Hints:
Layout: H1 2-31, H2 41-45, E1 53-56, E2 62-66, E3 70-71, H3 81-91, H4 103-115, H5 127-136, H6 145-163, H7 166-176, E4 183-184, H8 186-194, H9 203-212, H10 225-241, H11 247-254, H12 272-286, E5 305-308, H13 312-340, H14 342-348, H15 354-357, E6 360-366, E7 371-377, H16 378-386, E8 389-396, E9 403-407, E10 424-425, H17 431-440, E11 448-450, E12 475-478, H18 479-484, H19 488-498, H20 500-509, E13 528-529, H21 531-542, E14 546-547, E15 554-558, E16 564-567, E17 574-575, H22 579-595, H23 600-603, E18 612-617, E19 624-630, E20 633-641, H24 655-672, H25 674-680, H26 688-692, E21 699-701, H27 703-717, H28 733-747
Parallel strand pairs: 1-5, 3-4
Antiparallel strand pairs: 1-2, 5-15, 6-7, 8-9, 8-20, 10-13, 11-12, 12-21, 14-17, 15-16, 18-19, 19-20
Helix pairs in contact: 3-9, 3-10, 5-6, 5-7, 9-10, 10-11, 13-24, 17-19, 17-20, 17-22, 24-25
Amino acid sequence: xxxxxxxxxxxxxxxxxxxxxxxxxxxxxxxxxxxxxxxxxxxxxxxxxxxxxxxxxxxxxxxxxxxxxxxxxxxxxxxxxxxxxxxxxxxxxxxxxxxxxxxxxxxxxxxxxxxxxxxxxxxxxxxxxxxxxxxxxxxxxxxxxxxxxxxxxxxxxxxxxxxxxxxxxxxxxxxxxxxxxxxxxxxxxxxxxxxxxxxxxxxxxxxxxxxxxxxxxxxxxxxxxxxxxxxxxxxxxxxxxxxxxxxxxxxxxxxxxxxxxxxxxxxxxxxxxxxxxxxxxxxxxxxxxxxxxxxxxxxxxxxxxxxxxxxxxxxxxxxxxxxxxxxxxxxxxxxxxxxxxxxxxxxxxxxxxxxxxxxxxxxxxxxxxxxxxxxxxxxxxxxxxxxxxxxxxxxxxxxxxxxxxxxxxxxxxxxxxxxxxxxxxxxxxxxxxxxxxxxxxxxxxxxxxxxxxxxxxxxxxxxxxxxxxxxxxxxxxxxxxxxxxxxxxxxxxxxxxxxxxxxxxxxxxxxxxxxxxxxxxxxxxxxxxxxxxxxxxxxxxxxxxxxxxxxxxxxxxxxxxxxxxxxxxxxxxxxxxxxxxxxxxxxxxxxxxxxxxxxxxxxxxxxxxxxxxxxxxxxxxxxxxxxxxxxxxxxxxxxxxxxxxxxxxxxxxxxxxxxxxxxxxxxxxxxxxxxxxxxxxxxxxxxxxxxxxxxxxxxxxxxxxxxxxxxxxxxxxxxxxxxxxxxxxxxxxxxxxxxxxxxxxxxxxxxx
Length: 752
């Protein structure tokens, strides 16, 4: 018996020696870096979390982020005391007693968890070890992965405690720990779930966020509110057990509901299209910048603070106006499309496999009221977006080039293509530029133009008409009246008198892409122009004939330490036309708002501010435009389907019916806000003489009856009109001027 015992003891002893030797060898191997090198002490001391770059509106409101990991680092001063207490009570109550690893915790895990099977006793990793895992991750070492990784984490944790204070470790942990939903760090989590800064968290909110750490999805307060509440109360109980809360405080806090204020800036971005465009511009700026170490900036990792020009109140106003208009108009368009059988015609032309088109599935689609999950075929989902009206709004300051509002479409998540850059038929919105070219070569607002139908043989017998099919062979139309009412026939007369080259030159000065071979149809808007281009062009009218090379979206950029690394400064403007011409166009477009194509701004919305504006309607109603401005703001909007084959069949698709109401709603919001009104609704500053240039009758009747009528009018009103007529058959303006003066003295007008 003794021999057997001695033999057993010898075997056990040798086995223990082998285990000890193997463990020692294993430890030495790990320690010496056989399973991968360790970071140096200097590297540990200089640990820096990757940090998301933040995008701010002009008032400092967060509107977006760029990140590899959605993280915003904070300082210790931003950490509420109760948050640190909740974390320590829950994750590592002996945090201030150990040196990175906790032998007592290992013994607890061994006996309670492994021997007794009590999983509720928790794990053995300290906060420092968890931090190491978050920072460096774990490597695959086959069947040895777990012991190798655990030992490496313990060694690294010990080394980390040698170079960092407990406070610094806690802060690193809070800035790096994942909270699910691609959110890293306590600040990003605070903004995501409660839409507030970490420093503003109350005790129960801190407990919710600490509770998430055990299982990011299971305890997610948005996805699983009951689980989250249960876990929150466990955290509060642990805080009580560690004497951080009294029993009374515990009972009171546990009875409270979880009040979320969920804010996902990627899914529900208030300015998704804008933030995307800003990223491209910031990336270009950073190409020429380096940090203090001579290294290039990384927009997704370096925690930059990007301050933009966006006016968030105007942005929200534009989005609200778009939704209000398009919800109403979409119903009307759907009715027209249904009656015309457009769906069947469209589906016939699809080239996709038929079986795929008929494939039924639960699909998430954008709708104005909500994001819907519907059981629908693939063809249904394609048609859903194909028949959908879209709108884009761009608002800028004409005197600075600053972008105030950027809405590139209905929803950036579902419809990411930015319609602000989409080139669509500009229609009559181009006419102010055509008339500016006419004024530049010598026309005046009270010059008279032909208003009769002409068939142009040199251009495939092209025969344009006025929008309302009207014409007046026996009378002429004042230039100002023709533009204010967007008349096509006088515009064509002006175009030919001004000349192809002069018109093309003016359009190119506005940075429009004009083809080498210009056709007369360009005068009526047969040119593809983006909303970005036309808003920049109209800025020249508002800014006394000057505009900028580009619109400004970024005011300044700061690094994570708060140092300014870029500032936009003031742009130099380019003169497109003489200020007098810009003023004359503005005066005419004011008339368009007061009594012409834009009069709904007055009649329907009751706007009282001085406004200039112009509509645009594509020939088949596929594109609707409206642009309006004051000296301090230009608002441009486009409405249409993504494909030009989807459109209204009549006046509902016009610029005044489809696009103007969006601008009207925005101006209404501006006028109702004292701050915005004072800032943007300033009066035009041109002198009284400019308005007098429009002091003539809209029509000039030719022939004997016209002479008699003018003679009578002269007696009744006094000879106070200054009417001039352009002879559209001759090019010698100076010669014509002498003839005009003669007839003006005799008849109170000028004769062709």
